[in-house]
Design a protein that fits this description.
The structure holds two protein chains of two kinds. Chain A is about 40% helix and about 25% strand. Chain A is of the alpha+beta class. Chain B contains three helices and no strands. Chain B starts with a helix and ends with a helix. Classes of the chains: A alpha+beta, B mainly alpha. The structure holds zinc ion.
């Protein structure tokens, strides 16, 4: 992992060769080594320690969520190309025989599956909002959560920083516009300081989500015009196009309105989240400090291994 | 032109704004236009006037008032004619 490996394919190959990631036969789905997982665990602890003074409530949702929740969230309006929905076989013996016949013929058989009530979680915070709305009014000081989840996005790629299944750790603030904006401000500072402590080159920039289609161009322009999304970028597979490793998102009252998240006086809540792409941060560390974590610079090891 | 646009948008089931009471230069976002509804608006206008908004025009400003929309549409229909 020297300066020459600044492209996706060769970085991926070198991760396989060094036994850091393992091939599965599908682009974007990889096995992780113990060393890789230990880096992620250490980084998660660092994040949690940094957020500890804010006393967030921790919730770990599974990587599958209610399909109805995903639909109501508006995800299919913006990112139909990334969504994944779980399908299962629900037929009887006759259909089972048919299915095996279709498989034996080497043709398609998945049409005999039907959509279940489960969709794959696309971002750690999606399952949170209806769960919180169901608990009644939001207290005046707002609410803060720390989440972690495997997430799915259908975008097969040879870029190891663009996995189809990856983990995202998030802090989510639900409160007034001022509360959630100052939450985001504080993490913009803390996030950058944290990554600099790990001796990784980074910059924070205005960003937009990969909204679908031409209408999506307009959504993206709107998002930029309003300064709703920032990303912390680290060069991983390219210097010109650095990888977004942290993201800082202000949703305005989108989720408040969608889910009826309100204060006791009926005022709608705003929300913001800061997301840490855990595999991406780990990849950035291996990319910049080398394949052997034991040989990383002492200062970096001190930060990660002292928590 | 503005009246044609007003009645088109008023009939659109996915744009829940009361265009009948909005002045030509009233800010539609202030009136509650969401990003998603503005995309629906763009698609409806393209179909009605047989135009295609170029990427440079797909901004918040283009769709921020009935007057701005009419400006953009007349620019594009003039080009097409
Ligand atoms: Zn989020």
């Amino acid at each position: 992992m020297d300066a020459k490996t600044f492209d996706s394919k060769s970085l991926l190959d070198s991760l396989f060769e060094n036994g850091i990631l393992f091939e599965s036969g599908i682009d974007g789905l990889y096995g992780r080594s113990g060393a890789f997982e230990e880096v992620i665990e250490r980084f998660e602890r660092l994040v949690t320690r940094l957020g500890a003074p804010d006393k967030a409530t921790r919730i770990h949702f599974p990587p599958g969520m209610s399909r109805a929740t995903l639909e109501k969230s508006g995800y299919m309006k913006s990112f139909p190309q990334l969504a994944g929905c779980v399908h299962s076989f629900m037929g009887g013996e006759r259909e089972h025989a048919q299915l095996l016949g279709m498989m034996a013929d080497g043709g398609g058989w998945t049409e005999l599956q039907k959509a279940t009530d489960v969709a794959l979680t696309p971002a750690a915070c999606y399952p949170l909002y209806p769960t919180i709305a169901a608990r009644g009014p939001v207290p005046a000081q707002g609410l803060l959560f720390e989440l972690s989840s495997y997430c799915f996005r259908h975008e097969p790629s040879k870029d190891p920083a663009r996995m189809q299944l990856f983990r995202m750790r998030e802090f989510v603030k639900i409160g007034t516009a001022e509360q959630v904006r100052s939450f985001r401000e504080s993490w913009l500072k803390r996030g950058k300081a944290m990554i600099e402590q790990l001796d990784l080159p980074c910059e924070v920039d205005l960003a937009n989500d990969p909204f679908f289609g031409r209408g999506g161009k307009m959504m993206a322009n709107n998002q930029r015009d309003q300064g709703l999304k920032f990303e912390l970028l680290i060069p991983v597979t390219s210097i010109e196009k650095p990888t977004a490793c942290l993201s800082f998102n202000y949703h305005q009252d989108h989720f408040g309105r969608t889910w009826g998240l309100k204060f006791a006086d009926g005022e709608l809540c705003h929300s913001a989240c800061v997301g840490f792409g855990l595999e991406r941060v780990a990849l950035a560390l291996f990319r910049h400090h080398g394949p052997d974590a034991d040989a990383w610079p002492a200062a970096v090891r001190d930060v990660l291994w002292s928590v | 032109m503005i009246d044609q646009i007003r009645s088109l948008l008023e009939q659109h089931p996915m744009i829940p704004l009361n265009f009948g009471v909005l002045a030509d230069d009233a800010n539609l976002y202030d009136a509650g236009l969401t990003s998603f509804a503005s995309v629906q608006m763009m698609l409806a206008l393209e179909e009605e006037f047989d135009i295609e908004f170029p990427e440079a025009m797909l901004t918040r400003r283009t769709f921020s008032s009935l007057a701005n929309i009419a400006d953009a549409v007349s620019q594009l229909t003039r080009k097409a004619a």
